[in-house]
Amino acid sequence: MSTLDSRSTPRFLPGVRLHHDQTRSQWVILAPERVIELDEIAHAIVQRCNGERSVETIVAELAAEFDATTEEVGGDVIALIDDLIGKRILRL
Prior knowledge:
Elements lengths: L10 E2 L4 E5 L4 E6 L2 E4 L2 H7 L8 H11 L4 H17 L3 E2 L1
């Protein structure tokens, strides 16, 4: 099993996808037998989880987008990605 670090490149597991739900008027993750609703920050993170961007790159992009430091953003990014790996939504 891989360990999440700054060089990791998270991506969705097969059968999982990002989707804009018109009924809810929000972004959701569609996974087998479940839907995970995303707030603006969670969406900004997971939309970058394409298997090409590293965690470090995702943190840097979000820090620039939200005018924050990488230290402020990094903990939240890692926590969400780690949680979604545990829920079998993302993989490294």
